[in-house]
Specification:
heterodimer; A: alpha+beta; 9-stranded antiparallel beta sheet; 56 helices; 38 strands; elongated; disordered N terminus; disordered C terminus; B: 346 residues; alpha+beta; 4-stranded antiparallel beta sheet; 29% helix; 17% strand; extended; transmembrane (chain B)
Chain lengths: 1496, 346
């Protein structure tokens, strides 16, 4: 129905739209229209000034199309609340069912209860939900009101000035003026700014959480206006896209009266919700208002997920329905027979005829009865279950919120639960998919090392200093001496500048003076204010490099004074100079001053002094002043600007002398700035990514500091040289596809056009000048740099390459033309810009590389270890470099050194090269390994898988994903590097869907959003990188380590509580209903109930609901300490031990038994007595209540005060209610009339005796079972509970034992779970490389590894590493060990089996492939890497291949075949070569059990 | 978090820390007793339960055994009457029969018992009007079809329960030395006090017949409601004890209702003496139609109820079961204790 409504709506709006278009055309002529919606197909919107002729306003219909700025997030209005809310509630099937039942009661022939009474519980539940909804809606309404009544300045036509209006009154086409620190009320096109360059800074923290400032630009043509912007004169029409939710895109153009068009981009748009910063005043026209703003379009409400447990529960609810139907059917048939046995004529006196005096036929009677008993037995479907679960989950969320351990003091943030209804999923997670950067690591970049033109500067001092920082520096008393040593060390560095010392002193004083709390506070502040804490900012320069920088600067100074060209500098110094220039300017860092630090801090005090920021900006951008005062430079700026538009004619106009003049000016200015800086404090850098800030700070440590950035100019302060102003011609921003960014600047010294590029080494290395003018030297530098890069990666550093390109003016001009076209194009600007960037970022000259450390967060290795013990498989999906990722993985103990690492890499994959055969092979190998480990039972084989993005792309293809999964499943940890966000989500989806596993994705950045959304549980880290991940997540935690407690403790608790509660619910209702069912056998299946209808209806709601809620919220099956100490206990949740399908049935059977007891003990007690129906039913109710509550008591593990109090409360309440009810009035409750029953019963000893014996007998079996199970076959959880009672010493002792056993058990499990299917698909050829990972490897190995990385040619030389040799060698080594030989034979046998199967397939395909190989020039490679320590795979592969070589030379195994085909020629020599090499170091290999063997 | 909430500026820089309170409740550290269901901890529980149950059981069995009861099925013994009553057209024909029996000792409560009479049938149970029985003239919707006659005359009392009232009259005679003495029996005081005084009330009027004027007796009744006990004004109409007792519908199809109590006078001051007795029964209530039986029961009553020994036996059985289980698990416990089997199974 909604669908129909919607389509109707759409149709009407379309019609309206069409009408509007006609009117719009007319309006265009009269220029009256304020705005109008374009045609649907045009997909654009036209916006005109609202100030033009407001008489046209009566055209109301037009205005309705555009949303006004009123915010309305409420769902209901006062009128629509009831129908709408009910409508929504009836979407829940259960509610419909209960209403149906209640309505059935109104049918006289069927009714079981007083109809009004039967409605009560349904109404109660509907009312509870409605009140909850109403309250939520009201709070939304209140906050809406608050926002709607915020004020802003809107231009008024009548008063000819900006007047204050409410936000909600702002309309599309209005002109809005905003002051600094004001929040933007709508999406506004920036038309004027008080900033002379037409810039405006906004803070988007509200929108995406990014804390840096973003620049916005006035629409170009309005920038040139001479006079103040006057809204009245605005006659242009703006055509732009329809409202959409893409924050990073805005396209459109503005059509001026003259007919000229200007493009509009996202740089021109101020988004609602952002805050104006650093700009005094801006004005603009509203483009999108209210709900059409990008901010609100992006704002999807909370998500509703259905948890696994709930799904399972729903299945069991269906079973309950089935049971109910069976019971009803049984009763109906029984009744039919009962009626039938009396025959037609001889109706017994107690069979009451219908109101018309006629008796029902047996069939009709049974049909009616069926409906009646549905009503009577309705309780079987737990009406309150859904409400209870909701309440319990809300309480659980509350308690998770309140957990102190999940609070992070540093960021003053705590866990946020954003999804309220999947708490128990936390207890069942099987796979964790984690991002690396920012999730495992701090995402606080620390500059560690760099290499410039092939020379490495290790920054050892810096490393030492960092090591000191890493020690807990909470003891403030110790901070002072530490700082002292720091400054000492600083002074030891002979070339240390004053500034650095000063800086370290300033930190010292800061540390000394601050009390503990203050220091904490300062650190919090600094975290809020910028990416960089003092730790990251202070970099101790490497003395050698510093020397070089100084030398370089000196040279430059000399050169400048002698007016020598720059080329006199030695190439190395030149590189050093350029390197630091690139570090400083190749970024988007914004400079702010420290005393007015970051507005984010000031966000809470909106009325902070604004002027000073401006002052600061002015004061600390001396070059800006220079530019202002110096006519020549400003003219050059102007020319450059005009150049943008008119091409390149004026390009060569700037003369050298003017540059020099400027330089001199600058240097003077710069000196004053240098003098001024320390007094006023330091400059602060705000970067979009922490890497950038780290690099800028690093450059500053070498006295090459960024002092100012404007849109077209960067000022750099250099030693001796003073301030240099680089004219920024273009900034080609970073994107994840290019993986680099560039700036195009005009070099002030040489006046050359320089392109500085900074990017991932993998891309930048490929873009380097292919043809090398400087010959061998450059080549050497390049390979050296590559080596160092690899070393950095091994150390887990993030590497960036810095490169430069000098453009000739002609080249630049050429490029500029296309670039400008791209910039001004409206259609596919992004893509054109991308292409344009690709064109300029080539033929680069490598300057150097940097290594930035991203430190691990606290407790990450421990958390991972503990999560792993908990049986969670942890996959890390990262966009980072493989080497970096692997090393971080080692650092955080994700990978272990005694683990077999399988690495899958594909290099340049043209066609459908498949990893299929590799996977097959690996399966065969792993199988054999497992078999061997089974037979031996001694060694544990743990696999780790490393796969990169490109390979992943193939692995995720439908044909391969199963194989991939089968392999990955067997690995203890999986590491996917260089994966895109989409791949991340695909991997998660694959695991989730194929393995039917519960997945959790954790990440912190925007690139993790898709993964977080796909996973069953999404966790966001509310860290540094914006709020997008948090917004998308179900839970947001401050730190990765909090995951441990969240999952192991809260997850487990939530799961076990809820599981127990659900099971108990089923039990309770079944037990209660069964009582009624048994009674049917004694009342002719007539549907009568001995339990009074009031009890029947309210039993669930009042008497037995609260204790289970309390248990559901507060029960702790195992204390938190034990859960943390024994992570294995988490497995109970993964295996669904608390709520397995059979448990439902066990509970049902138990319920049946208990109800039998509770029914028949009173039955036989009162058999053949004068007892009346309610005098007999009331004891049964009482017994049932006792039994149900005591059952809960048995199932509850912690009897805390609330629980006990509630149990007593319930029992007392029941008696109280019963007594009051039975004494209330003799006629009030027709048809039942239990007047004075309870009172009478309570004077009868039999009542008490019955009520005592029945629960005891009913619960004895369960009690006994629990006891025996707790003693004889205790579950892990029960053992855990016992642990908590032991003394700490015994506990630790037991735990160590436990862990040992655990590992053994895991191995067996692994082996058990192993099932193999050898592929039978056509296999393509591949090369597999079995290679040792570098860590314990000899230097030589490492070296060779690097070399392989460097170049493809090298690769062929070295990695032609003939496997036979390695294998033979290995075998020789191996042979003497007797233990090994047995192993080997087993493994050997198996692989032969495996390979012989593959063999037949590969034969056909090897030949065609060999030709492909030649073309591909060996860039086609797949690696299988295994760690050295237990290189089982290696062993087996080696053995098999060697044996094949020796014995069945002509038979082609997969490995052998590829070897044969690929390297027919090469093989001999390379093997010889390798043989020599290997023989050189056989001992090494022996010692380390470490072999490097390659199959190619 | 919705965007809009974060629009709102928060007052003051000195924000209170968001660190949660360290209270026992919020940190889920409420003091609690964590019972461990292991053999060692529950052993005493079993034995105590066993001891308790056996004690109570013995008491109950003893007391149940002290009950003297005699039950006489007279539905067949008066076969002529039974046949007569099968035909509902003979409802007004008198039929008398007598049953002789020998009693050993004195019993003081007299019940009539019915078998297979489904007084707990749902529609039967509902078919009454409590308001009417309180003497009010109200809507008797639940009584249909025994609410009004076709001509509109309301039935008093209405409903199927009232209509089907047990209308046998049973008199007990003591054959004492060839002379037959009618045993004096109390008609009143058999029903619950609250029923007699609160739930049932005759309509207000100067006399009963006028109070029930305009109403008619239910179809099965032989006489009008105000003629139920003409001797005793306070036992007539709706407040008639036999009627009240009948209106309290029984829980099962086999039940007994208290009919008369012995009035301890003269010969019977010590209860019923041993000897031969005769029931004179005016046989009205038809049972053959639903294969029912009618009994007359004489019984004594003790504190624990009637002669039903079930409860006592149940206590004994469960008590001994608990004790036995206690012994068994003690054995298991002792055996396990030697082994020290914590964490044996992983």
């Amino acid at each position: 129905q909604t669908g129909i409504f919607q389509s109707l709506l759409v149709r009407t709006t379309q019609q309206q739209g069409n009408r509007k278009i006609h009117r719009g055309e007319r309006a265009l002529q009269h220029t009256t229209a304020r705005a109008c919606a374009g045609k649907k197909e045009s997909k654009t919107r036209l916006v005109r000034s609202s100030l033009l002729l407001p008489e046209a306003e009566p055209e109301k219909s037009k205005r309705t199309v555009l949303a006004c700025n009123r915010l309305k997030t409420t769902k209901y209005t006062a009128l629509s609340f009831l129908p709408k809310n009910l409508f929504e509630q009836f979407h829940r099937l259960a509610n419909v069912y209960f209403v149906f039942i209640a309505l059935l009661n109104f049918v006289p022939a069927v009714n079981a209860f007083q109809p009004e009474l039967a409605l009560a519980p349904v109404l109660f539940i509907l009312a509870v939900t409605a009140i909850k909804d109403l309250w939520e809606d009201y709070s939304r309404y209140r906050s809406d009101q608050e926002i709607n009544h915020m004020e802003c300045l809107v231009y008024s036509r009548n008063e000819k000035k900006y007047i204050s209006r409410y936000w909600k009154e702002v309309k599309v086409g209005d002109f809005v003026q905003l002051r600094c620190n004001e929040i933007i009320p709508a999406d506004i096109l920036l038309l004027s700014s008080s900033d002379p360059d037409g810039l405006c800074h906004i803070e988007t923290a509200n929108l995406d959480g990014e804390t840096n400032l973003k620049q916005r630009q006035v629409v170009r043509r309005f920038l040139e206006l001479d006079s103040e912007f006057d809204p009245l004169k605005f006659t242009s029409v703006i055509e732009c896209e329809k409202p959409n939710n893409d924050l990073s895109r805005f396209r459109g153009y503005i059509i001026h009266k003259s007919g000229k068009k200007d493009g509009l981009f996202k740089e021109n748009l101020l988004l609602r919700g952002c805050t104006i910063r650093n700009t005094e005043e801006v004005a603009g026209i509203v483009i999108y208002a209210g709900h059409e703003t990008k901010a609100l379009l992006n704002n999807n409400g909370p998500r509703y997920k259905r948890s696994k447990l709930e799904r399972q529960m729903n299945a069991d609810v269906l079973w309950c329905v089935l049971i109910l139907l069976i019971m009803c059917l049984f009763s109906a048939i029984g009744h039919g027979l009962w009626v039938w046995q009396y025959g037609e004529k001889k109706k017994p006196i107690f069979d009451v005829p219908g109101p018309d005096g006629k008796y029902l036929s047996p069939v009709l009677a049974s049909v009616y009865l069926f409906l009646t008993v549905i009503i009577v037995f309705q309780v079987l479907i737990p009406i309150s279950l859904y409400v209870s679960i909701e309440i319990v989950k809300i309480c659980q969320v509350y308690f998770i919120h309140q957990d102190k351990d999940l609070y992070d003091e540093e960021t003053d943030s705590q866990l946020q639960c954003r999804a309220l209804n999947i708490t128990e999923d936390l207890g069942q997670v099987q796979f964790i998919f984690s991002d690396k950067t920012g999730t495992l690591t701090e995402n606080k970049m620390v500059f560690r090392r760099c290499t410039v033109s092939g020379i490495e500067y290790s920054h050892d001092d810096n490393a030492k200093r960092l090591a000191m920082y890493q020690e807990p520096d909470s003891e403030e008393e110790e901070a002072a001496p530490k700082a002292g040593t720091l400054s000492q060390r600083d002074s030891i560095c002979s070339h240390q500048s004053i500034k650095v010392i000063h800086r370290s002193q300033s930190t010292k004083t800061h540390r000394r003076t601050g009390s503990r709390a203050e220091a904490k506070r300062a650190s919090i502040l600094s975290k809020h204010t910028a990416f960089s804490s003092p730790m990251e900012k202070d970099i101790t320069p490497d003395p050698r490099l510093l020397e070089k920088v100084n030398e370089c600067a000196k040279h430059l100074e000399v050169m400048r004074s002698h007016e020598q060209p720059l080329s006199h500098l030695s190439p190395e110094l030149c590189d050093v100079f350029d390197f630091f220039i690139a570090l400083t300017i190749c970024n988007t860092v914004v400079v702010t001053a420290p005393n007015q630090p970051r507005q984010k801090v000031n966000r809470f005090e909106l009325k902070s002094p604004v002027k000073t920021i401006e002052d600061f900006i002015r004061r600390f951008t001396p070059s800006r002043l220079t530019a202002g005062s110096n006519s020549s430079s400003s003219s050059s700026l102007a020319t450059s600007k005009s150049m943008h538009r008119f091409g390149l004619s004026t390009l060569s106009s700037t003369s050298t002398d003017s540059t020099l003049l400027k330089l001199e000016e600058n240097s003077q200015q710069g000196r004053t700035a240098v003098g001024g800086t320390p007094e006023e404090g330091e400059l602060r850098y705000e970067a979009e990514s922490p890497d950038e800030a780290a690099l800028v700070y690093a450059a500053r440590a070498y006295n090459c500091s960024l002092v100012g950035r404007l849109s077209d100019q960067v000022s750099v302060e250099l030693p001796h040289l003073g301030t240099l102003s680089f004219e920024v011609l273009h900034t080609l921003g970073f994107d994840s596809i290019r993986k680099r960014m560039s700036v195009v600047v005009r070099h002030p010294l040489t006046d050359e056009i320089n392109v500085y590029t900074k990017g991932a080494d993998s891309v930048v290395m490929d873009l380097l000048l292919p043809y090398d003018p400087r010959g061998k030297h450059q080549k050497k530098i390049r390979s050296k740099t590559q080596n160092y890069l690899n070393l950095y990666a091994v150390d887990g550093l993030r590497t960036l390459c810095i490169a430069k390109r000098v453009l000739s003016k002609e080249e630049y001009g050429c490029w500029l033309k296309t670039h400008l076209e791209a910039e001004s194009s409206i259609e596919n600007r992004e893509e054109l810009l991308f292409q344009s960037a690709l064109r300029i970022e080539k033929n680069l000259h490598l300057l150097g590389a940097t290594g930035i450390e991203d430190r691990l967060q606290d407790g990450v290795p421990e958390t991972i270890a503990s999560l792993r013990k908990a049986g969670l498989q942890i996959w890390v999906l990262t966009g980072d470099k493989q080497e970096t990722a692997v090393n971080i993985a080692y650092a955080c103990k994700l990978l272990d050194h005694d683990e077999e690492i399988i690495t899958l890499n594909t290099f340049s994959n043209p066609s459908e090269l498949l990893i299929f055969p590799v996977l097959n092979l690996l399966q065969a190998v792993t199988k054999s390994l497992l078999i061997r480990s089974n037979t031996q039972g001694t060694r544990l084989i743990v696999l780790g898988l490393v796969i990169d993005g490109r390979t992943l792309a193939y692995a995720l293809e439908p044909a391969l994903e199963d194989k991939f999964l089968a392999l990955a499943k067997r690995c203890r940890s999986v590491l996917c590097c260089r994966s895109t966000p989409l791949q991340k989500s695909m991997v998660v989806k694959l695991v989730r869907d194929k393995l039917k596993a519960m997945t959790l994705a954790i990440g912190d950045g925007a690139n993790d959003v898709s993964m977080i959304q796909v996973a069953d549980v999404g966790v966001g880290i509310s860290g540094q990188e914006g709020m997008q991940a948090v917004m998308a997540s179900d839970f947001a935690i401050p730190r990765f380590r909090h995951l441990e407690k969240l999952l192991l403790v809260h997850g487990h608790w939530c799961y076990s509580r809820l599981a127990n509660m659900v099971l108990y619910f089923f039990y309770k209702n079944a037990m209660f209903v069964a009582l009624l069912f048994w009674y049917q056998f004694y009342c002719g299946f007539s549907g009568s109930s001995m339990i009074d209808q009031w009890y029947l209806i309210f039993f669930n709601l009042f008497f037995s609901s609260l204790p289970q809620l309390i248990t559901g919220v507060l029960d702790k099956d195992v204390p938190a300490e034990v859960l943390i100490a024994v992570p294995q206990l988490y497995k109970s949740g993964q295996n669904m031990e608390e709520y397995q399908p059979h448990m439902f049935w066990m509970n049902m059977i138990d319920a049946m038994y208990q109800s039998l007891v509770c029914f028949f003990i009173p039955y036989f007690t009162y058999y053949d007595s004068e007892v009346d129906i309610f005098s007999w039913g009331t004891p049964i109710t009482t017994i049932a209540l006792f039994t149900i509550i005591l059952h809960l008591a048995i199932e509850t593990k912690t009897w805390h005060i609330l629980f006990l109090a509630d149990i007593y409360k319930n029992i007392i309440l029941f008696f109280f209610v019963a007594l009051v009810y039975n004494a209330s009035c003799p006629v009030c409750h027709p048809p039942s009339n239990p007047y004075w029953t309870m009172e009478r019963l309570m004077g009868d000893p039999v009542f008490y005796f019955t009520c005592i014996i029945s629960p005891v007998v009913a619960l004895l079996p369960r009690f006994l079972y629990r006891t025996l199970q707790g003693t004889l076959f205790p579950t892990q959880l029960q053992l855990g509970r016992q642990l908590s009672k032991l003394s700490p010493e015994t506990r630790t002792q037991l735990l160590t034992e436990l862990n040992v056993k655990e590992t053994i058990r895991q191995t067996q499990l692994l082996a058990d779970s192993f099932s193999l299917s050898l592929g039978s698909n056509a296999s393509h050829c591949y090369r597999a490389k079995n290679q040792s990972t570098p860590l314990p490897a000899s230097p030589q190995t490492r070296e060779s590894l690097f070399r392989e990385h460097t170049k493809a040619e090298h690769k062929t030389d070295q990695t032609a590493a003939a496997s036979p040799q390695g294998a033979v060698l290995y075998e020789e080594n191996k042979l003497p060990s007797s233990a090994g030989s047995l192993e080997r034979s087993v493994g050997f046998h198996d692989v032969r089996c495996g390979t012989s199967e593959v063999e037949s397939l590969s034969v056909g395909t090897t030949l065609p492939w060999s030709s492909a190989v030649d073309q591909e020039d060996f860039s086609l490679l797949k690696w299988i890497t295994s760690t050295p320590l237990f290189s089982h795979i290696g062993t087996v592969l080696q053995v098999s291949s060697s044996s094949l070589q020796n014995e069945t030379r002509d038979s082609i195994c997969v490995l052998g075949s590829s070897l044969h085909v690929d390297f027919k020629g090469l093989k001999e020599e390379s093997s010889n070569c390798l043989q020599d090499k290997m023989k050189g170091t056989p001992t090494d290999h022996c010692k380390n059990e470490n072999s490097e063997t390659t199959f190619l | 978090m919705k965007n809009k909430t974060s629009f709102l500026p928060k007052e003051g820089e000195a924000q209170p820390s968001r660190c949660p309170d360290n209270s026992a409740f919020k940190q889920q550290r409420l003091p609690a007793w964590k019972p461990q269901l292991t053999i060692a901890s529950v052993l005493s529980c079993f034995f105590l339960t066993g001891a308790f149950c056996i004690t109570v059981g013995v008491c109950l069995v003893l007391s149940a055994n002290s009950v003297r009861e005699i039950q006489i099925d007279y539905s067949d013994k008066c076969s002529d009457c039974s046949k007569l009553r099968e035909n509902s057209s003979n409802w007004n024909k008198e039929c008398q029969c007598s049953v002789n029996f020998t009693l050993k000792e004195g019993d003081i409560f007299m019940y009539y018992g019915l078998q297979n009479f489904y007084q707990n049938h749902r529609r039967y149970v509902m078919s009454r009007s409590d308001a009417q029985l309180l003497g009010r003239n109200v809507n008797r919707s639940y009584c249909a079809p025994f609410s009004t006659y076709r001509n509109g005359t309301p039935m008093a009392p209405c409903g199927a329960i009232a209509n089907s009232i047990f209308n046998d009259t049973i008199d007990l005679f003591y054959n004492h030395n060839s002379s037959v003495i009618q045993v004096p029996l109390l008609k009143t005081g058999n029903s619950w006090w609250t029923d007699k005084n609160v739930k049932f009330r005759n309509p207000d009027s100067y006399n009963l017949s006028s109070a029930f004027a305009g109403t008619a007796r239910p179809p099965y009744w032989q006489k009008a409601v105000y003629l139920l006990d003409e001797e005793d004004e306070r036992n007539n109409g709706y407040v008639n004890d036999d009627f009240i007792i009948w209106m309290r519908v029984s829980a099962f199809a086999t039940f007994r209702n208290l009919y008369r109590r012995l009035r301890r006078v003269r010969h019977f001051a010590e209860g019923l003496p041993a000897g031969n007795y005769t029931f004179h029964i005016s046989y009205n209530f038809p049972v053959a139609r639903f294969k029912g039986r009618k009994h007359v029961i004489l019984s004594t009553v003790v504190w624990s109820g009637g002669s039903n020994p079930f409860l006592g036996i149940a206590y004994l059985v469960s008590g001994s079961a608990a004790t036995l289980t206690g012994f068994v698990i003690t054995g298991i416990h002792l055996k396990l204790r030697k082994k020290k089997t914590y964490f044996q199974k992983q």
